[in-house]
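Tutorial handout. Part one gives the primary structure; part two gives the three-dimensional structure as tokens.
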Amino acid sequence: MIRFLFFVAAGGALGSSLRYAMQRLLNPMQPDAFPIGTCLVNVLGCLLIGIGWGLSEKYYELSEETKLFLFTGLCGGFTTLSAFSHESLLLLRAERFLIFFSYLTITLVGGWMATWAGYKLFA
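Part two.
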């Protein structure tokens, strides 16, 4: 159990650090603008997990440690539901309804489609 936690923590540290860097670089400074950085990390993280899933089924079975590092740790740390929820509430409070619904749609539908596309392209 401790060994598995190490793999999740190592992947999570890397994923969270990458997410923070992308959000800082890409998110606009105004709280009522479209949060492109967060949206991008969420959709990209979904694509990566779809690619990993497809590749692991097609070419080789990944070890439990590798799955925990890549999927639970790296992709889990890279993507963020909490920032998505917080930014969505900020958009609603600022009455930026078009941006809110665009963000919601791109993140949820785009994320699902990215996972599916990554899987289909590489499985």
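Part three, for discussion. The chain is about 85% helix and 0% strand. Residues 97-122 form the longest helix (26 residues).
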